[in-house]
Design brief:
By secondary structure, the chain is α+β, with helices and mostly antiparallel strands. The protein has one helix and six strands, in the order αββββββ. It starts with 14 loop residues before the first helix and ends in a 19-residue tail after the last strand.
Length: 117
């Protein structure tokens, strides 16, 4: 499998364009990581929301969401859901992987691990 290209940061940022961008970016990030660590993979499936929730903060746009993935390399394997957060502003894309959500609520402007974004 060939790793996919990363998307280009939108020229104009708003909640909708950032949501679409981080969805595409996370899919590319996960696929690239899985292809690099599983060269024998014959099929990789990544499920990321097409419209993750995005909020505007004084630091930029913040999106945090869960995703799942599966790798088929001889024997199919599903992996537990993962949780990531992004901070996006002009010229900046910051990604952090957080502890998976376990029924806890998130606070606007704070990542799943309680650290302010």
């Amino acid at each position: 499998m060939d790793p996919p290209p990363y998307p280009t940061l939108p020229a104009s940022l708003d909640a909708a364009s950032v949501g679409s961008f981080v969805s595409d970016y996370e899919t590319a990030y996960v696929l690239n990581s899985l292809v690099a660590t599983n060269p024998e993979a014959t099929h990789v499936d990544v499920a990321v929301s097409d419209t993750p929730p995005v909020r505007e903060t004084d630091r930029g746009y913040v999106a945090d969401f869960d995703y799942t993935y599966a790798v088929e390399a001889g024997t199919p394997a599903d992996y537990p859901p993962r949780h990531v957060a992004y901070l996006v502003r002009e010229g900046v894309v910051a990604r952090v992987e957080l502890a998976p959500r376990r029924g806890r609520r998130t606070v606007p402007g704070v990542g799943g691990d309680g650290v302010p974004l």
